[in-house]
Amino acid sequence: MVRSAIIIADAESFIVRGIAMKLQGVDVSTKYSEPEEYEIKKIEDSAELLILYMEDSIYENTDMLKYLNSMCTVKGKMLALIGSKAEHDHAKKILDERVVWECFERPLEMDLFLKKVRDFSSDMTIESRKKSILIVDDDLDYMHMIREWLKDLYKVSMVNSGLQAITWLAKNKVDLILLDYEMPVTSGPQ
Description:
By secondary structure, this protein is an alpha/beta fold. It has helices at residues 14-25, 37-43, 56-60, 62-75, 85-94, 110-119, 122-129, 140-150, 162-171, and strands spanning 4-8, 29-33, 49-53, 78-83, 100-105, 132-136, 155-159, 176-179.
């Protein structure tokens, strides 16, 4: 369950205050932030979940969306979007799908929103928020040693040939590849 959230909105309007009050009623502490990078930076470490109440200025503020995407990716935070379908679609063009936890349409169905927030499990999402690394090496002992070093902080996948790497990459996304330069059959550069 979420223990703390930041609500990011143009103004601390009646609706935003209402969302905060309802969240506090289910034991989620909340803070409010304007959609400005310097404001969010002051309090970003104090919350597990960021709730973006989307309106015109947020919808148009691609720099702020890019900042939120980067910050959520680096710090393992998740975003809940509250807005219209068009606003969600626009935001999803900028935001990585791994940082968007849920999208809620306005007008907000409060009971559903609160149920989802209560069901949100930090443990469940920690694994999905980890960056992924693919190790490509023909030395199995080396690969397993590297995997042991990295497995607590990253999702680590391993393949032992260049051809397996190409096949794996056709079906999966990865943030970083640790690649052996000299391998038989298909080398690293190939």
